[in-house]
Amino acid sequence: MERAKRQMRTTSKVWGKVIAVSSFIAMFLVSVVIRCTGVLYVSWQTSFDSTAAQTAAIASIITSSSYCTSIFAGVFCNRYGCRFTCILGGVLTFFPILMSFWATSLWSMYAVAVFTGVGTSFSFLASNVVLAEYFKTYYAIVSGITMAGGSTNMIVFPPLLRLLLDAYGWRGAMLVTSAICANLCVVGALYRPLRHTPRRPTIVTKSTGNIGISPNSNTCSNPPDSHVQKGPTTSEGKCVTSTASLRRVFSALRLGLLVKSYRFSLLCLTSIQLQMTYSCASVFLVPRAKFSGTDDMKASFLLSIFGFGSLISRVASGFFVTRKTPVEALNTFSFVLCCVGLLSSQAETYESFAASACFLGMGTGANKVWSNILIRKLLGLPRVASGQAIHLLLCGVGDLIGPIVAGLLYDSTGSFGTVFYVLAGLVAAAALQMLLMPMLRRIEPGVAEKEETSTGSVS
Question: Where is this region: Disordered (predicted)?
């Protein structure tokens, strides 16, 4: 028995390296579509004769649908495993991109954007969950390295996409991109399940008025001592059932965390503002540089500089957290970096655009890491998954409205400078809002701290 356990641990340790490399590749492939649409922005606008807001909606739909469907991706991971979820995400990613080759209207591109966003969400979440299954002690280090795959993509892929665009046009470039994204299916096949944990059915007492649902069957299970009244269903019974179902959904998503922890609500609010800036910068930075007279190839390299700054900050941010510096202060500093980056672009020279891309990449990349640490600090370990789901869902809202509002602002003013000034003000407001964290801490100790006061600290 002990020999079998040792052999299993050895096999898992060896296969864990394969999982880490596969997850890094998956993060790279997921970011192919999400953050490189700025290179194709002008081509789409010219091909479909659309406004700035209509064209920018393609990128916002991809990212927002990716964020908003993360809850469903979690259901698939729990039900069918990471391997199936990642392969399904790969299919949902590459097939719509392949179909965009025959797109004849902007509405066709919107449909492509929706399904592509769903696919990237499934693959992204599955790649994160499989790491948590295989790694415990070194999970933070491995997770940081694999998350850098998205930043690596922003360095490597925009110039490649520019070469494909010049050689084959935007339709041919999308065709080649679909073939690259199809490798998500290959990566997902490597996500071998580590172990199978049988699921226990939900047990609900009679006093709650709820009906227990067994996850392994499609029938409802009642407590043994309950008496189910047979006969026609009344309107009152339907109302009680609907209320109980809504209560179970609300409880499963743990949306009450937004009410119980004011600091978590403030973090989500500032994340929405930063996500609006992040999505707008990745879409409008390249077109702004082009309209300022920058060469097309040099303008495409701005996204690579953006990704390089994000890569450095994601790796280095962990070293700052290990010191005695409050995470709230570090998170505020990331907003200041983004504000400086947005204001740097107002000089409208290539050097200023490069500095803007670097500062924006560093600010947004570090914020991703520090926000996750803040969620763990404010909500505690048992609620990290629910907090991440709520956080991603609200970030999707910012990702959806950001490029659309920025596009409308550009259509009304005709100036990219105005758009970037408004974004800088939005991020500056988020930095000021983070200063409210100490005051909110006096009002409520936080969900995690309430539990730790009575049950002991969480290691």
Answer: 215-236
* Distance separating alpha carbons of residues 149 and 30, to the nearest angstrom: 9
- The answer to the question of residue 139 being in a domain is yes
pTM across the whole model: 0.67
Report the domain count for the chain: 2
Structure tokens that stand for 18 in this block: 């394969």
pLDDT at 90: 93
Residue 196's nearest CA partner among 86, 302, 82, 324 is 82
pLDDT at 321: 62
- Cα separation values, 228 from 77, 205, 237, Å: 34, 13, 12
Regions of the chain short of the pLDDT cut 70: 1-13, 35, 74, 132, 136-141, 195-256, 318-319, 321-324, 380-386, 444-459
Q: How far apart are CA 281 and CA 35, in angstroms?
A: 10
Tell me how crowded residue 113 is: count the other CB atoms within 10 A of its CB.
Answer: 25
Phi, psi of 221 (to 5 degrees): -115, 130
- Helix (H) / strand (E) containing 124: helix 106-134
Q: Which residue has the tokens 């996850």?
A: 215
Longest dimension (CA), the chain: 77
Residue 304, both tokens: 């690579």
Which range of residues forms the domain containing residue 93?
A: 13-206
> What is the domain-level CATH number for residue 283?
1.20.1250.20
| Phi, psi for residue 326 in degrees, rounded to 5 | -60, 140
Domain end marker among 183, 206, 229:
206
Show the tokens assigned to 350.
Answer: 């290539």
Residue 177 contacts residue 197 (beta carbons within 8 Å): no
* CB-based contact 93:73 (threshold 8 Å): no
| Residue 404 token pair | 């659309």
73 C-beta neighbours (distance < 10 Å), count: 27
pLDDT at 412: 87
